Recover the amino acids of this structure.
């Protein structure tokens, strides 16, 4: 048998022509189609309001097409919703806790049954990849309702020796990055503790909250227990300062959070805020590098970087800076940016034109201040839609704007450090304190560093792990109060 | 002593699982299945194997689906190699000589390797002398777990030297780590690094420059559970990748045992595509990824073959064929 020199063998079948581009994946579009009405109204006191008044469109950020028209809630709508919640409150609070649990369990099961529909809807409205809405967002939504359903009749055990009572009417204002998941984080503990709720989803992503209202209707919740009103910041401001609201829960930007804190100050309203972040990753030379890279990728490019706890500052021990940078570049080149409804998409569309402009502004600023930008891939992006290639900056100094301000996009700033103390000092040198990641194979070092980091969540050799039983929340300008777990219940009970 | 990078098992498992989430459809699926077929080391390693069984397997490997042109309108590729015990190499040679399908022989006291080194080396020389193109050796796991890493490296070098034919050309060596017995991913990485370096040292002795003889590292004998898994294969691929980046030398990868379905094979190919994107010069026809060719990636399997054929037939005809529509070997 003819053998060429060392190096090759003759193998009968050369690879197919499809491999010239490295085995291109064929399109794999999600096939489930969802029904969207042309216009949505508010869900108040168990019924959908009449379609009158001002509306605004909600877009699919991947196509810029209008999905449907959404109603702008007026002061009158907010009044009605708060009044409905207030009226429902005594009965809901007086319901046997086991009965409240039944409603929540029913809701959780129904969410699981309609998971695919909710995933598609979430992806269409927010731009996030279907892979994430299907495998992360919606399963966690159901998990939160299941978890808190379990607490409903065990609150006395959560706070031994005390008698937990509901706070009252909760005004809950949620962001556009995890629309349904944030709704679940807010609704589940409030309802489990016997409160009634007025929920306001973000104006760019109201569809899944409205669909959730339909499911709540389907589950036969008593009227007024959950009310969903839609609108922009004006609606949120009216709701937060409404005298009939006893507790305000807000997730969103630090800027708006400060306004809400000012508006509610002295009113006797309870307040929890989950705000921005500029979370650090610290990677030591003794880390398992390939796996650390995975965590860093997941930390910053998950949901297009539109994550409050995104690991947006990477501190690398100087001895491995070049190695980590080249690994990062290689790994980044495998990320697939594009149609969020394609099952193989890793990075979808940015949520809105405004957010894209913000991100682009930071990209410009970073380059102007002297950092070097590395972008992922050269494949053309769709002509329509709000797209931003995942990227990272090297040569970033702690004083650079991109190392200090929250970008809320798929942009990582790579910095260096020399000693553990320097790493901790640099990581804590921020007005924020939401999350942090530590990467080292050395157990003792992990515990030492984790203890010194000023952040609400510290992930060790992993990142972005969420569980309903685990409290989440921040330090400093990242807000106060916790969501999830035993700690999360505290915000929704009085003694 | 060799310092190997550490591996975090939790994140490595998570990464490996992420490849199974890729959705491979239509044209990509068909191309992937054809490629997987061409990457097969179609294997029989039973005590009851006979020359007739080996010959049947060779026929199957040469022409995996005899009705391909009639039913599918295309000639499907042959497999890469037929993998047998040393005693059956001569029988395979009757059929495979000159066909382009290689003869791979396990050797070195497969599967345990618990024999004196001289016996293991004779085993290799005999198989090479009978015409084996590729030798699948087992490492001395006892020595590895006892921390005698230099001994492992020395034995691999000896075996590789024994793979040299009188004409000076090396039969390609595949070093089986038997990862199921190494247990941890840190051990898998260390054993991979030892094997890769030892093989390259012998290439260097023989004056063979980069990219070197296309030798392989291989997960398993198939006689120990667990055999090939995605996390183990990922860690081995990372060792191969790092070695290429350091030296420009190319080493092949062979997961073996436990890969029974076409879908699993596609998951492995996704892992290869997304881990080995190294822009290797000379491999522009596969976008610079040599591991997307049978020269550097193989599946050690037996039942996988007919499942791939069944899926190809389904893709091309829209109908599933019965199991008995595909010949056994």
């Amino acid at each position: 048998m003819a053998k060429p020199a060392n190096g090759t063998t003759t193998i009968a079948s050369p690879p197919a022509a499809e491999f010239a581009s490295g085995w291109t994946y064929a399109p794999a579009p999600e096939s489930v189609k969802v029904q969207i009405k042309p216009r949505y109204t508010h869900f108040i006191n168990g019924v959908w309001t009449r379609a009158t008044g001002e509306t605004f469109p909600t877009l699919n950020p991947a196509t810029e097409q209008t999905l449907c028209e959404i109603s702008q809630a007026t002061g009158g709508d907010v009044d009605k919703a708060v009044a409905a919640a207030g009226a429902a409150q005594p009965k809901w609070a007086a319901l046997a806790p086991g009965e409240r649990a039944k409603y929540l369990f029913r809701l959780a099961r129904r969410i699981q049954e309609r998971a695919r529909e909710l995933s598609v809807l979430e992806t269409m409205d927010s731009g996030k990849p279907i892979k994430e809405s299907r495998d992360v967002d919606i399963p966690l939504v159901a998990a939160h309702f299941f978890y808190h359903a379990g607490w409903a009749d065990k609150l006395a055990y959560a706070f031994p020796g005390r008698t937990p009572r509901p706070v009252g009417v909760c005004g809950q204002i949620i962001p556009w990055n995890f629309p349904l998941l944030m709704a679940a984080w807010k609704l589940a503990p409030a309802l489990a503790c016997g409160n009634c709720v007025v929920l306001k989803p973000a104006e760019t992503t109201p569809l899944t909250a409205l669909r959730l209202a339909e499911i709540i209707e389907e589950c036969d919740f008593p009227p007024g227990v959950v009310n969903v009103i839609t609108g922009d910041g004006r609606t949120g401001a009216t709701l937060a300062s409404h005298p009939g609201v006893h507790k305000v829960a807000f997730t969103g930007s630090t800027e708006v959070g400060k306004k809400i804190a000012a508006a509610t100050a002295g009113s006797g309203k309870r307040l929890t805020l989950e705000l921005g972040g500029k979370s650090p990753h610290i990677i030591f030379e003794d880390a398992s590098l390939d796996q650390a890279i995975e965590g860093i990728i997941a930390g910053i490019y998950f949901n297009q970087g539109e994550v409050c706890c995104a690991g947006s500052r990477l501190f690398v021990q100087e001895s491995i800076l070049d190695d980590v940078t080249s690994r990062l570049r290689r790994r980044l080149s495998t990320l697939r940016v594009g149609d969020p409804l394609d099952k193989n998409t890793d990075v979808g569309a940015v949520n809105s034109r405004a957010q894209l402009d913000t991100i682009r502004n930071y990209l410009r600023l970073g380059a102007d201040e002297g950092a070097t930008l590395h972008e992922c891939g050269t494949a053309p992006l769709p002509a329509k839609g709000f797209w931003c290639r995942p990227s990272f900056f090297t040569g970033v100094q702690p004083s650079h704007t991109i190392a200090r301000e929250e970008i809320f996009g798929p942009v990582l700033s790579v910095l260096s450090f020399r000693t553990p103390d320097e790493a901790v000092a640099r990581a804590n040198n921020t007005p924020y304190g939401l999350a942090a990641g530590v990467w080292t194979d050395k157990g003792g070092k992990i515990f030492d560093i984790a203890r010194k980091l000023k952040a609400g969540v510290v992930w060790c050799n992993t990142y972005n792990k969420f569980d309903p039983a685990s409290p989440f929340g921040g330090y400093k300008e990242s807000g106060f109060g916790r969501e999830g777990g035993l700690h999360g219940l505290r915000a929704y009970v009085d003694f | 002593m060799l310092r190997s990078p550490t591996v975090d098992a939790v994140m490595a498992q998570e990464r490996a699982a992420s490849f199974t989430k890729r959705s491979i459809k239509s044209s990509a699926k068909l191309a992937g299945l054809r490629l997987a077929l061409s990457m097969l080391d179609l294997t029989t390693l039973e005590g009851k194997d006979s020359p007739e069984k080996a010959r049947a397997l060779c026929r199957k490997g040469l022409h995996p689906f005899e009705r391909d042109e009639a039913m599918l309108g295309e000639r499907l590729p042959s497999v890469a190699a037929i993998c047998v015990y040393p005693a059956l190499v001569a029988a395979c040679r009757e059929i495979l000589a000159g066909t382009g399908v290689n003869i791979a022989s396990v050797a070195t006291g497969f599967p345990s390797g618990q024999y004196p080194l001289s016996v293991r080396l004779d085993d290799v020389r005999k198989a090479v002398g009978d015409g084996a193109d590729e030798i699948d050796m087992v490492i001395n796991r006892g020595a590895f777990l006892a921390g005698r890493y230099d001994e492992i490296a020395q034995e691999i070098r000896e075996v590789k030297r024994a793979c040299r034919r009188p004409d000076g050309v090396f039969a390609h060596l595949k070093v089986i780590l038997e990862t199921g017995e190494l247990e941890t991913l840190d051990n898998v990485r260390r054993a991979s690094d030892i094997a890769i370096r030892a093989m390259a040292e012998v290439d260097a002795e023989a004056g063979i420059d980069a990219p070197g003889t296309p030798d392989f590292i291989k997960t398993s004998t198939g006689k120990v559970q667990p055999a090939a898994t995605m996390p183990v294969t990922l860690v081995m691929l990372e060792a191969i990748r790092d070695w290429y980046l350091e030296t420009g030398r190319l080493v092949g990868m062979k997961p073996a045992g436990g890969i029974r379905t076409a879908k699993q094979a596609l998951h492995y190919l996704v892992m290869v595509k997304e881990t080995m994107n190294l822009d290797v010069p000379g491999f522009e026809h596969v976008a610079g990824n040599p591991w997307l060719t049978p020269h550097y990636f193989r599946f050690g399997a037996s039942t996988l073959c007919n499942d791939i054929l069944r899926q190809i037939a389904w893709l091309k005809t829209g109908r599933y064929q019965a199991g008995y529509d595909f010949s056994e070997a």
About this structure: Residues 179 and 219 of chain B are 6 Å apart (CA to CA). The two ends of chain B are 46 Å apart (CA to CA). Chain B has one domain: 9-317.
